[in-house]
Amino acid sequence: MEPQDADTDTETEIESKELEIDVEQNSDIDDDVDTSVTVVGSGPVIVELDEEIDQDGELDQDADVETDTAGSGGREIDVGIAQRPEVDERIDLDVEISKADNGTILVEIGLDVEDDIEIESDADIDVDDADEDSIDTAIEQDMENDSNIDVDVEIRDDIEAEVDVDIASLVATLVAGIVDLEDSADLARLAVDLDEAATIDSDIDVIVDLGELIA
């Protein structure tokens, strides 16, 4: 399965009465699922693979900047930041080995993968006149990772076989938020830099060893 990637980088700049506001939002989604099936043995065997992979990624970025100043006195700056990456993965794997009417070994594999990634990145900046300069920053960062893996193996008709299922799944989120105010004699610069990343990287390997059964 081809990986699904989304990388969004937005930047907002507003200048008002010697105050420069720079908001940069960088959100990255990476979703990659790889599968492989191996049957060890020789002779008549039928392998049926029913694979359904659903990958859904959603980015929601919002930057709201409001300035209401007359350019005299000081400035009261309020910065509110909310960063919420969420990752949810569900893997259901069923393996069934049986014999067909003609004696041929039948290996049936059903794989259902559901990946859901959402990133919400909000920045609200409000600038008002005040008696003196001040800045108030509130940063809310909420990360949620959830992974559920269910494997069911059934060997019927008294067949002697071994099934090895190896699932390596990485589910991760990362956030970083930086607010920096630089003030000089003729210019004040407010920089807000938001970074979010959400990743699913899954490798699903199924090995069916029929040994000498079909030799």
Write a structural description.
The chain is mainly β and 215 residues long. It has one domain. Helix content is 0%, strand content 81%. It contains no helices and nine strands. It has strands spanning 4-16, 19-40, 45-68, 74-99, 105-130, 134-141, 144-155, 162-183, 188-209. The strands form two sheets. Strands 3, 4, 5, 6 and 7 form a five-stranded mixed β-sheet that branches. The protein is rod-shaped, with a radius of gyration of 27 Å. The two termini are 33 Å apart.
Write a short abstract of this structure.
With 215 residues, the protein is mainly β. The chain has no helices and 9 strands. The strands form 2 sheets. Strands 3, 4, 5, 6 and 7 form a 5-stranded mixed sheet that branches. It has a 4-stranded mixed sheet with strand order 1-2-9-8, with no helix packed on it.
Any key phrases for this structure?
215 residues; rod-shaped; mainly beta; five-stranded mixed beta sheet
Radius of gyration: 27 Å
The structural domain count equals: 1
* Mean residue pLDDT: 88
**What is the total tally of β strands?**
9
Cα(first) to Cα(last) distance is 33 Å
Helix run count: 0
Rough outline: rod-shaped
Structural class: mainly beta
Percent strand: over 45%
Low-confidence stretches: none
Estimated helix fraction: under 10%
The largest sheet, given as strand count, sense and whether it forms a barrel, is: 5 strands, mixed
SSE pattern, N- to C-terminal: EEEEEEEEE
